[in-house]
Every structure is written in structure tokens, then in C-alpha cells.
Amino acid sequence: MALVTLDNGQNILIDINIRASADGEDEDVHDVAQDLKDRLPRDDEDRPYVDAFLVSHPDADHVSGLRNHFHLGALDEYPDEEDKDRIVIREMWSSPIVFRRANSQHKLCDDAKAWATEARRRVNLFKEKGMDGTDSGDRILILGKDRDGKTDDIMDIVVLQDELITAANREEDGQFEARLLAPIYIDPDQEDAEELIDLLSKNNSSVILRFAIMADGTEDACRFLSGGDASVAIWDRLWQRHKDSNSDWLSYDVMETPHHCSWRTLSHDRWSEMGEDVKVSPDARNALSQCREGAHIVASSNPIKKEEPNPPHERAKREYVSITSADRFHCTEEFWEKNSRPIEFTISHQGPSFSHRVAAKKVAAAIGISAIPTVARGHGSRDGE
Question: CA 365 to CA 89: how far, in whole Å?
């Protein structure tokens, strides 16, 4: 998961994977939920909260722990004193894929089903009460237009591809901009619609946001690119879409590698079949290499080793190192094994800097990225592809 803290104290959370073993019962496993709660502000009722929470796509390793650690439902149904430590989601940010019927390629885990149920509750409340009638704790943004007209009647809360998000929980004061680069909307009437329909599969419906974050009164002090599990086909298409006039939209100071440093984010070739003869997709690499000077790349993954299931993939790591440098490529789990803390960048007017803090503290603008052991496995692929 990644936690973006703004200068005004607001927090934007991107994805979670809080497994049962990390809930504090096992002393040998980091209590990632408590670590998160220690970093969050509390409201007048002493409830921890995030101003916005994005689930990039509804895979289990991007939403696990939701039911155990977050409040779902109206705020007047918040638990009593014995369970008064659930995190309030002031505003949900969600891909429209959660509203689609599950099928053999798109199955929702129980936490993802709970996210979808809460999203529907908030959408229905918006339909009933409108923008002015939905308060903090009931708000939602849908990131991307859905097909078949499913979002046509709620366009006031839909952010279209290429548009900007400039407010978290509707508080707009210039703290950030987030450009919505994906999910990619496929017009059913376009010539290649059937060929491209796989781009709307579960992983490829991942939300991709490029943040520009203010710090110390300086706009655009840090650019952060977050891409969920989007595969090579998405990055190919984004480069073709933006290379001529908007390639700067893909630029970053910090990037979290898509799909946990997966090889299939960078190439159409199968490593299991071709080994070192595989080729990197030039378009995907171009899309993912628009780094500003001194940029950091973070793989939220298990330790990266050769001959291990993909993701993470050692060949992908080599490519990312060639984009930045060895000392600016970081793996969350390798970092944890050495330092027993998440990766964190503090942001000043000079940009992001690698933080050496050893404990959770209230900070100004910052980005924290964390993973716990076995967070990123192969999603069914066990052959190192």
C-alpha cells in the first residue's frame, strides 16, 4: 500500500494488503494495520480516517484487510467503544470494474465484494441526495467511464480518462493534482473495439494516476506515478496516446512499479519460453521511463531473485535499474528485511528525498510505500513469465 500525506495534513491511501498474520497476533510479523493507524489523523470522535482511499483494482492483494480494519456503511453505524479503531473512508476512489458482474476471469474476494457493496451504497446515496447531500464518509469518485452506459447517470462523480482530480474529500486548496491516465475507455463503436476488449480485464482496468504534489508552497514539487497491476498492453497504448503532445503526463520523481515488478508489464514475450532472448516493448519502456532527474523507482514486492515466480522478476528489475540507477531502485520487502520499516519519501520544495526515519510520525508532505512478506505472488502464473 502507498500513503500520500499532503502539506495540509490530508491523507490519500492507495491499496492495502493487511493479511491476518499482520494483524498483530504474530509477534514475528509487522503489524502493518497499526503502523497505518499511527500515521493517520483522528476526527472529533477519535476515529482514524483517510481523506481518500483508492483501490486500484479489486485483486485480493490490493484490498485484503478492508473488512477487518475499515468502517463500511453510514457513519452513524460506526462500532461501539470495544471496536472503535476502524478507519473511516471519507471519500472512496474506485475503478468502475467493481460494478461489473463477476465471471470466470473476474472473481471478487470477500474484501473486494465488500468494497463493491460500499461503493454501490455511496453511488445510490448520491443518486438520491446529489452532490450537496452527500457528506464526508458517504462520498465516492468513480475513476473512468464504464461501458454500456453504466455510469451515464452519475457523471458528476465520474472522472474521465485524462482529467484531473484536484481535491480529496472535496477539499480543494491546491495541494495536489492527480491525472487519470487509466482505466482506458474503449468506445464499442470504434474499429478495433473487440480486439481491445481484453484491456478492460481485471488487471488492465487498474487505475493509473500521476500525482503532482505541492510541498512548502511549491507546486509540482513531487510527481508520483501509481499504476496498479496494469500490463504491457496498457503502457504501450498510453505511450502511443501521449508521446507526441503529452508525454510529460507520464513523468515522475517516484514510481511504484506496476504489478509488483512483473516482467509482463514490460514485455509481450514469455520468459519461460525465451529466457534472455525476450525483448522489452519499446512503447511500454518509454511510458515507464519518463523519470525526472534523480527519480526513485519502488517495487512493492517480495525480495527479487532469479528463478522465482513472476512477479517480481529479476529481468524487470534490471530494466528499471537501467532507467534510474541501482541506488535509486528499491524493493519494499528487501528494505524491510534490512531496516524493519516501510519505504518513505519526505517532500520539500526541492522535491522528494529518501527518509531515514525509524518510526511513524506526523509529517508534512510525504509518500510511504509498504509491503509485507508474500504480498505479491504470481496471480496464477507460476512459470516465471
Answer: 20
Cα–Cα dist 215/222, whole Å: 8
Q: Which amino acid is at 351?
A: G
Contacts of 351 (CB under 8 A, 6+ apart): 221, 222, 253, 294
Cell 511504484 appears where?
A: 256
* % pLDDT > 90, the chain: 68
Q: H-helix or E-strand containing 318? A: helix 314-323
- The DSSP string of 326-358 is GGGEEEHHHHHHHHSS-EEEEEETTEEEE----
Contact 188, 322 (CB under 8 A): no
In a domain, 381, yes or no: no
HSE on the CB side for 74, CA within 13 Å? 5
Percent of the chain having pLDDT more than 70?
83
Backbone angles phi, psi at 286, to 5 degrees: -60, -45
* Residue 322 CB partners (closer than 8 Å, separation 6+): none
The CATH number of whichever domain residue 108 belongs to comes to 3.60.15
